[in-house]
Each structure stands twice: as C-alpha cells, then as structure tokens.
Amino acid sequence: MDLNRLETKIALAIAAIVSSARESAKLNCLNGVYNKIFVTDIIEEFHMTDFLQLRVLTLNCWGIPLPFPFGSADRKVRIKEIAKELATGKYDIVSLQEIWSENDFNMIHDAVRLVMPYSFYFHNGYAGSGVCVFSKGIILETLMHRYSLNGYVHHIHRGDWFGGKMVGLCRIQFSGININVYATHIHAEYNHDEDVYLAHRVVQAFELGQFMRNTMQNCEMAILMGDLNLRPTDLGYDLIRHSASLKDAWLERSDDYSPDGSCKQGLTCDLKDNCYTKASSSGKRIDYIFYWYEKRTLKVAVDKCFPTLCRIPNKPNLCYSDHSAVYASLNIARNGERIEESNNREIYEHLNNFANQLRYILPVVESGLQKVILLACIVHMDSGRGIALAGHHFTDNYISIFINFIDWILFLVWTGLSQFRRESVENDHIEHAYSIGTIFLL
C-alpha cells in the first residue's frame, strides 16, 4: 500500500475517534456534566491532528400546510420522520427547504436540539421562506438577501411570489473552522419546454453567486445547499458555480458509494420510485451541495456524496418528500497557518449588547403595526361615499378597487413588520448563538 495513503487512513481514523469523543463531550456539557480537563484534552488533540470530517445534508421537505390536494400529502407524518432521522446525530449541518409552517420548524428543533443545538429560520415573504438551518456548531451571525425577481404576483396558483425566494447565510464556527453556510431555494421551473420564469431563475442564480462572492471574505470555507431548481446543463448552474468559484460535491466525490435505494446517477427529483412522483417521470438533479475553501489554510476533499432519504424505512409506502435529500461528507485538513480566531468572549458580549438593542427596536415596530391598523380602519370608514383624489371623483366601483388596493399594500406592510417583530423577539431569547437576519420589506 502507498505510504501516503496509509498515513492518510491512519490520520482519518484518529480524527474519527477524536470527533466521536468531542461530540460526547458536547452532549455531556448539554446534560450538565462538564469535564473541563477532558474537553481541553480533546480540543488540543484535534488541533494536533488537524483532520475533521464534516457531514452535511440538504432536503426539500415539501411541507405546504394546506389540505391535500392544495397542500402536501402526508405532511405531518413525513415531517415527524424527517425530525426523527435528523435526531440520530448523523449530520453536522442541515439545510431544509419548504418548511412553510413554523410549528413544523419548532417540532424539528425540539427533536434535534441535543445533537444540533443551534438553528435558524429565515422569515421572508408572506408564508415564510421555508428555509432553515440546523447545526452542531454555533451560529454566530445570520444574513438574508431576497431576490429582486420572485415570479409573478398574479400567479397565485404557484405561490413562489408569496413565499419570497431568498438566500440565507449562517456564519458557523465548527471545531475551530469558520464556515459560511448558504441556504436557498430558487424559483421552480414548472415547464421545461416553455419556461416563463426563466429570466427570474437566471437573475436569482446571478444574485446568489454575487451575494456569496461578496460575503466569503472572512471565512475559511463556504457551503451552499438547497433546491436550486436548475439542471447541471442550465445557464443558472454555471452562473452560480463560476461567479463564486464553487465546486459541486457530487462531481468531486472520491467514492462512488451509494446506499440502497439511492439513485446512482445523483438524481434527486421526479424519480420513478418516489411515491409522490408520476411513473412516467425520468428524474433530474436539481438539489445540490456546493463548497469553496481557503486554500492557504485548508485542504478539503469530498469523501462521499449521494442522494438519500427516499423511502421511510418503517413506512415503505411513504417517502420523506417528493425530493431526495443530498448528503456529503467532507474531509478537512489544515494547510499552513491557521487564521487567527476571534475571541469568543468578545463575540458573546457583542451579541448580548445587540440583543439588548432589540428591546428598543420592538416598541418602534409595535407602533408601526398600530399605524397600519389605524390607517386600514380610516380607509374603510364611509366607503359608500365618493372619494376625491387628485381632482377626480371616484364612483363606488372605483372606490372598491381603491380600497382593495390599499388593503393589499397594508397587508404587505403589516406582514413585513410582523415578521420583523417575531424575529426580534426570537433573537432576544437566544443564548449568545444567533443574531438577527436581515428583513426586506416590499
């Protein structure tokens, strides 16, 4: 056997043992049993080996909380099974899409909090963005960018505009490595031959790449996960990869291993063996894990990458979702000088001060909500009489149109303010781990 390969295998074996012990130490800490000497020894040993395996997963959960056929079939059962799988501790960072119900998010959060104690839900649109992140490593900061094109408002039957497609960033510190995790869900295609949303999806891909490129300066590694609704042959796929210098984990994998039931071609959607897919579908690869790393400080290699989580083991007639998940294990080694880490005490003090500022923000938002409600009441008062506006007298029909328009605008403002208030309250109760995500109002 080649000596270098033997040394690598030995180092990875040591890293696996250290990683296992390290996670045990974290769990003991969570349970109130904190052994300072043990944790210190493990951290020092890890820094000596400088090897780490990072396990990441992305899944579109198809969680529309409406009665079938308008909503997602078997949603409650499937979400519980997804939470059960994530609670096994197999994953270090997870990105989920189409978690439209906050109750579903909270249920998953409660189920996985012992193995992934840090999480964040990106509030956006009028049904929520559906995008959330769970992590074993601490989430230091979050940021959100809403795409400038989000489908058509009059395409109510699609719902993409109401959800508000976006990209969310979580800055995560995992075993001494600063990682930017980007979670997104790009506009659906719906019809490949007559794609009326092509321009929207290309713009979203462009903005995603630009957003990543301009926020990756202060990290050692970046990971993009999500349902991109783009095939590898699509223009948007190339835009994302090249604008942010990303690598596709599926293409970079060193091991062709695929578990039973996994598509060996890497396809993740419209699979024939998915119980929610038409039998005539041929399948496509639209869910991805991309990555980038700072070559001056790290070496990263993809050990395994494959689609997973199709059929539910104890419920063979059900699938976790209409998509398959994508899993990747990344082997990370130090390469040269370590980027100096920020002092944790300073970070925590900064976040504490920021949380205190939120208490001053909330009354302002509450005041804005009250004004919106008051304005809505004024508009509806005496609506049977004509309204003089810009020198014109409107009849009852025009009054109705005008009032409906005002109602719509007020609804948009009220929704945005409510989301900001809710997110502010959530961040006010976080234990040093979160910071507020940027909220964009229309």
Automatic annotation (TrEMBL):
GO terms for cellular component: membrane
GO molecular function: metal ion binding; sphingomyelin phosphodiesterase activity
Topological type in the membrane: Multi-pass membrane protein
Pathway noted in the entry: Sphingolipid metabolism; Lipid metabolism; sphingolipid metabolism
UniProt-listed InterPro entries: Endo/exonu/phosph_ase_sf (IPR036691), Endo/exonuclease/phosphatase (IPR005135), Sph/SMPD2-like (IPR038772)
Location(s) in or outside the cell: Membrane
Cited Gene3D superfamilies: Endonuclease/exonuclease/phosphatase
GO biological process, one term: sphingolipid metabolic process
Listed EC numbers: 3.1.4.12
Domain Endonuclease/exonuclease/phosphatase stretches: 57-323
Keywords: Hydrolase, Lipid metabolism, Magnesium, Membrane, Metal-binding, Sphingolipid metabolism, Transmembrane, Transmembrane helix
Pfam families: Exo_endo_phos
Main subcellular location of this protein, as a coarse class: membrane
Cited SUPFAM superfamilies: DNase I-like
Classification via PANTHER family: PHOSPHODIESTERASE, PUTATIVE-RELATED, SPHINGOMYELINASE FAMILY MEMBER
Family the UniProt entry places it in: Belongs to the neutral sphingomyelinase family.
Protein name according to UniProt: sphingomyelin phosphodiesterase
Organism of derivation: Trichinella patagoniensis
